What we know:
- Strand 9 and strand 10 form a beta hairpin.
- By secondary structure, the protein is an alpha/beta fold.
- The chain has helices spanning 34-49, 74-81, 99-112, 136-147, 151-158, 182-192, 197-216, 242-245, 281-286, 321-332, 349-361, 378-381, 388-402; strands at residues 12-19, 23-24, 59-63, 90-92, 118-125, 270-280, 293-302, 341-344, 407-415, 419-427.
- The protein binds acetoacetyl-coenzyme A.
Amino acid sequence: MSTLEPAAVRRVAVIGGSRVPFARSDGPYATASNQEMLTAALDGLVDRYGLERPGAVGEFVAGAVLKHSRDFNLARGTVLGSRLDARTPAYDIQQACGTGLQAVVAAANKIALGQTEAAVAGGSDTASDAPLGVNDDLRKLLLEARRATSLGARLKALAKVRPGHLVPDVPRNAEPRTGLSMGEHAAVTARAWGVTREAQDELAATSHQRLAAAYERGFFQDLVVPFRGLARDQNLRPGSTVEKLATLKPVFGVDGPEPTMTAGNSTPLTDGAAVVLLASEEWAEERGLEPLAYLTAHETAAVDFVHGDVADGEDGLLMAPAYAVPRMLERAGLGLDDFDLVEVHEAFASQVLATLAAWEKRGLPPVDRARLNVAGSSLATGHPFAATGARIVATLAKLLAERDAPGRGLISICAAGGQGVTAVLERP
Ligand SMILES: CC(=O)CC(=O)SCCNC(=O)CCNC(=O)[C@H](O)C(C)(C)COP(=O)(O)OP(=O)(O)OC[C@H]1O[C@@H](n2cnc3c(N)ncnc32)[C@H](O)[C@@H]1OP(=O)(O)O
């Protein structure tokens, strides 16, 4: 018996994006669930591109970092609550802050292999509605009570419950193997790479100014759908100057005698959702849709921050893009100079600056700051973990399309767990 011939690889087009404005946690979206936010973002795409027709897209891939057990398949639940055809298959994916971009990659790979013609990918996160677990001791007692075969045995198990058992298990924004928060890890890395407070504040101020300018010129008009009274990212402070940022107190105290990381040069805890529409060129052409850009390469890498020397900076928790990007460029036969635009997710200003320094140390040329995060990034938009990847893909694709000339853009996203997800978008 002969097997099927492997499919020829096709180009994957980025058609458009949709997201809700991002909100600071415990603010306007405090009562919104991941599913509600993701549905609003998805419906934005459905309305814009007429996706309500049966079978309009092959699948929906999404995820959330902070997820309730009731959202066991958040993507499928979202489809069922949206205006997308209810017969659209959907599944969840999770790679911490790389989730949104990894969802895009998963969907793109199916399109590239001819397994589907179009797909929607993205993510959602809410720190306001984070799942609280019952603590481990209470969980064991509840399971014991459930397994009990008589009323007496059940009551005996429940009688062991003490007030201390009622303390909930709150998810921490921390790495369980080191006990350090994301910010503390970034602070250790900042110290190792000699990243200064001034450089961090300058990057943060630029992010706010560029995001403000992009909103001002209407750049986000077809990328952001109003939600719960917000029309633009709530964290955006156009008046965030270097002078103002310099007055803020440090918040993560582990980067030496003079800690450098503040609420201004770190992302805030954020709620929001974002999605992008991907398709084959044929699908786009049949519908008269011009692709914004094409997703042409991607790479993931991981660092061993558990056994490596975290303090030397090389294997910092958020430093995997320092390995993923050189590997991706080598595989694609490209240099950093070949990129017109570079998008580095700003989890913390210090982590962006350490990543740029690490690329240089690995022989890549310095990134021209005029090409870096030109429409602002996470320090200004905020960072709802799983939504960030789709936000960046849509922003970069539109920036490339706006140039009305051939162009190439790079995406670099660090993720908890010591991972990095990176990609290349091109417009011929
Ligand atoms: C998870 C992954 O896979 C990878 C990643 O991306 S890692 C990143 C994950 N995200 C995080 O770890 C989130 C980190 N952030 C935090 O924990 C918190 O936001 C924080 C500890 C940094 C700050 O929390 P906070 O103290 O409650 O901040 P907040 O009250 O908003 O701001 C403190 C002050 O700075 C001011 N401020 C904040 N940003 C400012 C700005 N841009 N301009 C001017 N002032 C600013 C505020 O107005 C406030 O001033 P007052 O005290 O006078 O009111």
